[in-house]
Each structure stands twice: as structure tokens, then as C-alpha cells.
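Example 5.3 — Exodeoxyribonuclease-3
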Amino acid sequence: MKIATYNVNGIRSRLPNLIEWLERESPDIACLQELKAVDTGFPIGAINDAGYGALWAGQASWNGVAVLAKGVDPVESRRGLPGDEKDTQSRYLEAAAHGVLVGCLYLPNGNPWPGPKFEYKLAWFERFIRHAKGLLDSGHPVVLAGDYNVVPTDEDIYDPKGWRRDALLQPESREAYARLLAQGWTDALRTIHPEERIYTFWDYFRQHWPRNRGLRIDHLLLSPDLAKRLADANVDRWVRDQPKASDHAPVWVELGKPARKRAPAKKTATARKPA
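Solution (predicted C-alpha cells):
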């Protein structure tokens, strides 16, 4: 099974790129972020024509998340992150498909730092950590996929010194991500590529894409049962090289089939010797 996450940075303007990626890479489940479109503007017709069912939570001009599933309609389990009824930003959508529960998230950027946007980022992160713990404790196979807007370590960015004042690298952001992992989640991309400088985002400034000056901020976290099935993970860099591309590239994991449960061994009767 292949599960992917992709910040499309505007689904209407990137629709040709999205459809080409779906047709070429054929993920079983795809989580999308930054739709930047209201619900009625979601291109469900084109998504269906590509062979996918979908759930989405849109928002005008900003945010927006979606879960796509190949050949089936994903079953919604939660819309919006719990813990703050006043938070109306479309940043979290949870659904079941192909035997897996997927949490699709677009964690707040937090810039400029310091300031209220950074405080909102940390508060949202705390709510997410609490919810993630509940998902882990449920025992269901879970993937938390999306744009976390966190660079976990200095090995996940081309130039940590030049970004020290950015919200993505602040100690509080990194510490929250580390606490999330400590619950028992597996960072799939880093597990498969433990030593490689592998990036998922390259901004549009100063030729950062051609020069491979990137950041790793899109992550797929696996619950322990799925971590045992992790077979591969990587970044579809070719998508970032397309005309009018998003500044993110899709990131994916491949999971092997679950291990078959062995039937209990039958007890054989043994003859008793006469006394």
C-alpha cells in the first residue's frame, strides 16, 4: 500500500500537476494541504475521473485539506482538530480507507516569530499531540500525514544558520515534534533515509529549487503496527520540477502486507501406558 502527502499550494492552479502525479504514481491514499479553495471549488469531478474518491475541508484563499483514496470513497471520522471550538481554520481531516486511518494535517506556519501566529502554532501543536495520543492508544493502524511546518533537526535544512529566526526551526517547534514522536510514532522518511539530506520543500526565491536548497517539513508518521510494515519512503521530486509547480513535492511511504496470524497448533492426543 502506498500512502502520500502533498501540499499542492492551490488545488485549482495545480490541478494538472496533481492529476498527472496521481496517474503516474498511483498512491492508494493521498493527503493534500493548502487547497486554497472553498468547498464548492474543489475539483471533485477531475479527481473522480482520475479514479479517486475524496473528502475535503476547504477555506477561501487559505488552508484547506483533503483525503483521496483510489477506487473508494474515504470514510470521514473527524473534521477539524478537537480542543478549541473557536478555531475555524481548515487544517485537519481524518478518514479511513483501505484498512488504515489517516490524519491529514496542515500545521500552522507560525511566522512571523515571535508573535501571535507563533503562539497559535504552538497551541495547535499541543492540541494535535493530545489527539495523536488518543489515536495511538486506540490500537488502530494510523498514519499522520501532512505539512508539519517543522524542520526537525539541522540535518533537515540546507542552511540552518540562515533560518534561525524562522518559526519552523524554533526550539519550541522542534521540541513539540520530538514529544509527538516520543509517543511511539515512526518518522517514515527519516527511518528509510537516516543519513541523507532529503528535502520536501524548496521556496521560490534565489533559485533554491535548481540549487537543491530545501527543507524537510512534510512528514508521514506511522503507528507501531504500521511501522513494522514500512518497506520504503521517498519524495517525488519530479513533481517539483514541473511548470507552475507547488513549492512542495509529494512524499510517500510503501507498506507491506500485514503479517498473517498463525493458527494455534493443534494438540495431538498421546496414548497413555497402562498402569
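Remark. The longest strand covers residues 100-106.
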